[in-house]
Write a structure and sequence with these properties.
The protein is of the alpha/beta class. 36% of the residues lie in helices and 23% in strands. It has two domains: 2-116, 3-Layer(aba) Sandwich (D-Maltodextrin-Binding Protein, domain 2); 120-217, D-Maltodextrin-Binding Protein, domain 2.
Amino acid sequence: MLAVAAACLALAPASAAEPYPSRPIKMVVPFAAGGPADAIGRTIAEKMSVILKQPVVIDNRPGAGGVTGMKAVAKADPDGYTFGIGSAGALAISVSLQPDPTYDPVKDLKALTLAATVPELFVLNPNVKATTLKEFIALAKAEPGKVTVASSGSGSMPHLAAELLQQYAGIKLVHVPYRGAAPAVTDLLGGQVDSMFMDIAVLLPHVQSGRIRALAIGSPQRSAML
């Protein structure tokens, strides 16, 4: 899930006498460039620029499962010049895991729209000797604490999906968090990590090219794209 958010009350111009918008707008993406949130953020920013007739500049601020970027949005002046792309991790999971949260998603942010819902795909590097989810679980049980699983950050949706898989399957994987989807996918392709959950839109081209192997999708039904 990806949503567009803004600092609370950000749609009210700082001065009633000043036309809005009168200067460039910032769109904070709380993950590294090249990932799904970044792609959606850039698409929205492009459309906003045309409609508002002002540049909408992308500001990638990865870290802490999206918390770093969303904190920047929450702490920005509520003047309508800072927006953000919030994920389920940054708006609910990651911030809930913080012992001392630096922002309250409900009080400090204003939700504007649901931008996209994207199912998580579970994939492997082809060198991993498993072609089905059943075989992967058997492999992980045979080698507890050795098989790695990447995510776009601690507390992110891919991280939560990996934890749920471990809980339900009774396996122990080594979690390797990254500062966004793009670097995680790069290392999966290179064989530095064994597996990962990630948005299907990011992984599909690599699945279709045979560079990674898809095992399962986090959706009630099969995907027509696979």
